[in-house]
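re the bet — no i am not wrong, look at it urself. input seq straight from the record:
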Amino acid sequence: MDIKAVFFDIDGTLVNDSRQVLKSTKKAIASLKKQGIMVGLATGRGPFFVQEFMEELNLDFAVTYNGQYIFSPNGLLYAQTLSKKEVVDVLAYAKENGKEIALGRADGMLGSRIMSFGMSSLTQGLHRFIPGKLSGLVSQSFNKVVSRFVPQDYKELEAIAREPIYQILMLATSKEGKEVAEHFPHLKFTRSSPYASDIISPGMSKLEGIRILGKEFGFDLDQVMAFGDSDNDFEMLSGVGLSIAMGNGSSRIKKVAQHTTSSNTEDGIHEALSYFGFLGNEPIFVSQDTSFNKVKQFHGLMDQRTQEAPRAWTCQDAGHRAAFTIEELVEFVHAASSSSEEFEETVSKLHQALDQAKEKVTAKEGGPQVDLVKQADALVDLLYFTYGHFVLMGVDPAPIFDLVHQANMGKIFPDGKAHFDPQTHKILKPEDWEENYAPEPGIKKELQRQKKAYHKHHSKKDAN
């Protein structure tokens, strides 16, 4: 994958909870720049806020206000304002319903003292210690208390609204934000905080901003690597070639990202760039198959290396890998057997099938030879068959794969390495693995969810 540009969200990603850029992140960005890779920001913040980062890190461009305002050190590249009517309508709604809002101009997010405090480094750091389920209660309580002392000045907002407005920020929980969005279906609502909604023009997003920059600077979306942690990063991480979720990111973001790194306080950016080979001399490829990338992540930790250049398996190693597969197939058949007799009979048939397969393969033209093409073809067929098994079971394998991946990653010890039995060389498991990582309970719960979703869907269908 040829990466030409890397983009970072700011809060919860580029900066730590004290709103500082880690030394490891600065070092990583400098390395990207030396390699000729362009580096930019993609944020819900305004241009006034990101300027210091642009200068400090020598960045190439910034997508601000969720794509509404894009600039480089040489000047403004793109700007999309909300219409005067849209701003007036939202302002009238806020006034009628007692909603705290701020209006985003090029020079600042103005109009709300509560939000100015809420966007400070102190409160941005504190909100990470508040459970998500309590964010709504905290937001409402904070709003009620503070608004008594610093009430919203709607006349001031009306004056601010006469200038170009690129984004509106409304203090609202996720539930409240959805209710407000229903009143303004022609506007787009996104979130970078559990306490507020970002209101922008329809069709705009960080991803769209990156697309605009790509046309200007000569790169495609599949040549972009992006880092994020919040819901307003969802489209960006869904649409770029290589997407990275921060360890402190939301579960929704982690699901859509191709890779999850450490948190914004634990050198997550440096770790991910190093893992994907951008900070070393060895080129490391990344697949478009996210499941493959997760398995590669596991092998990178377990084996302390990964194979980057295509190569064929030797017969001995291929035999070991095939044996692993056979064990899982026998386990599969065992789980489909209603009695020991039925299981023994089925295993006997498997022996016969193995002999028949041997005869079929050896009957083909040409003798045995190491062939990378045929190995790849056979393994993809095996993968295709595996997906077919799930299709005919009516089971979505993706969430179950993630559970198994988490279980395998749980075999990595606190020192970041896999441990092996000195005699058998079998991989060892940490003492808490069974309690915290064994996948069976999670698989059972996930299958129950899928069954419930199926019956719910068809009961509605039948009712109609």
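see?? The first helix runs from residue 10 to 14. told u. also Residues 5-79+205-286 form a domain with the Rossmann fold fold (CATH 3.40.50.1000). so pay up
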